[in-house]
Amino acid sequence: MSSSPTLAAGAEAPVFYDDGHHHPEQGTLLGFWLYLMSDCLIFAVLFGCYAVLGRSYAAGPSGADLFDLPLVAANTAMLLFSSITYGFAMLQMQAGRKNGVLLWLGITGLFGLAFLSLELYEFAHLIHEGAGPQRSAFLSSFFTLVGTHGLHVTFGIIWLVTLMVQVNRGGLILENKRRLVCLSMFWHFLDVVWIGVFTFVYLMGTLP
């Protein structure tokens, strides 16, 4: 016996007007803004933890003893340059130049990789000097805050490479433009967070 419902005599078949293909206007951007706000809360908690624990050295080294400001300044420059080059990619997108978009996205990715390389070098140097995250509450909060930002940059680079493949295959279609805009907001957000890290953690950490 069939389990499918049967229509009463003389009844018309139901008509569905939503075929599932409608995409709400600006829905993706709104959802992405909500995601960024949640990320803001995560970093706010991490900054708060560092504010509480940043002077708990447990008779160990302080930021003034450990931080190499010229190295951190070079690292900061890499991330800021990547934000500028991503802006150039967006200008190329508005002009409809696919190759220009791919070129500037590639340069942005290289700057991002340079940033991560310097950060990993800093972490490895600190751990080699015996200043790992288990040494004190200060270092635990430092590694957590800076490492979380580094993970975001890593995911951003993976997203960037994926988007380069999509643009290369599909061109500057509406969906790819929307993805480029979302990644742009994410990348600039990471820049803003890093400026906070550079100022609050590194610059203030070297003060006596």
Describe this structure in words.
The chain has 208 residues and is mainly α. The chain is 74% helix and 0% strand. The protein contains six helices and no strands. It has helices at 27-53, 63-66, 69-94, 98-128, 137-170, 174-205. The longest helix has 34 residues, at 137-170.
Proportion of residues in helical segments: over 70%
Secondary-structure-based class equals mainly alpha
Shape: globular
Number of strands: 0
Please outline the major beta sheet. Answer: none
List the helices and strands and how they pair.
Elements: H1 27-53, H2 63-66, H3 69-94, H4 98-128, H5 137-170, H6 174-205
Helix pairs in contact: 1-5, 1-6, 3-4, 3-6, 4-5, 5-6
Key structural traits:
single chain, 208 residues, mainly alpha
Concise summary:
Belongs to the cytochrome c oxidase subunit 3 family. With 208 residues, the protein is mainly α.
